[in-house]
């Protein structure tokens, strides 16, 4: 895999923001109830020790879980008109991610409610788990 060739199924990420601009290029793969976000790790993603910064990992998981909840709600014909906001986010670090690895999310649980959604996710570097995250989201009306 090279910087220009993400794993099969990943395409340039559909959602851009000023917050995630420094992480580019970002890629995503969508399914009925999951949006996986991935990127090839570069120096800009690292802390002073040369390891990928935990804040990047947590933010990537938060983004992926929120988008996965939107995908699940949309699949239930309940697309949130005002979007979602994070109520709580918990991240447990299981290992380290390093330069040159492919970092991607795997949202394996989404539960939708009337005004609250829940999600769990694994973040993997070259397929090995480096973090697990859980989040609760508030569904906003327009």
Keywords for this entry:
7 strands, 15% helix, alpha+beta, seven-stranded antiparallel β-sheet, single chain, Thiol Ester Dehydrase, Chain A, 142 residues
Brief digest:
The protein has one helix at residues 54-75, and strands at residues 11-12, 27-31, 34-40, 84-93, 102-112, 116-125, 128-139.
- CATH level-4 homologous superfamily: Hotdog Thioesterase
Q: How many domains make up the coordinates?
A: 1
Provide the succession of SSEs: EEEHEEEE
- For the largest beta sheet, what order do the strands appear in spatially? 1-2-3-5-6-7-4
Question: Helix fraction?
Answer: 10-25%
From the 3D structure, determine the CATH topology: Thiol Ester Dehydrase, Chain A
CA(first)-CA(last) distance: 41 Å
CATH architecture: Roll
Low-confidence stretches: none
Number of strands: 7
Helix and strand content put the structural class at alpha+beta
- State the helix count: 1
């Amino acid at each position: 895999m090279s910087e220009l060739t993400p794993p099969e199924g990943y395409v340039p990420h559909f959602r851009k923001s000023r917050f995630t601009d420094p992480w580019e290029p970002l890629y995503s793969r969508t399914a009925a109830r999951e949006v996986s976000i991935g990127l090839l790790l570069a120096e800009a993603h690292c802390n002073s020790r040369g390891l990928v910064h935990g804040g990047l990992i947590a933010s990537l998981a938060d983004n992926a879980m929120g988008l996965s909840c939107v995908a699940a709600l949309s699949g239930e014909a309940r697309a949130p008109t005002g979007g979602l906001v994070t109520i709580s986010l918990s991240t447990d670090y299981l290992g380290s991610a390093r330069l040159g690895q492919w970092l991607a999310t795997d949202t394996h649980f989404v539960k939708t409610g009337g005004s609250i959604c829940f999600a769990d996710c694994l973040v993997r570097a070259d397929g090995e788990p480096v973090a697990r995250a859980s989040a609760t989201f508030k569904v906003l009306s327009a």
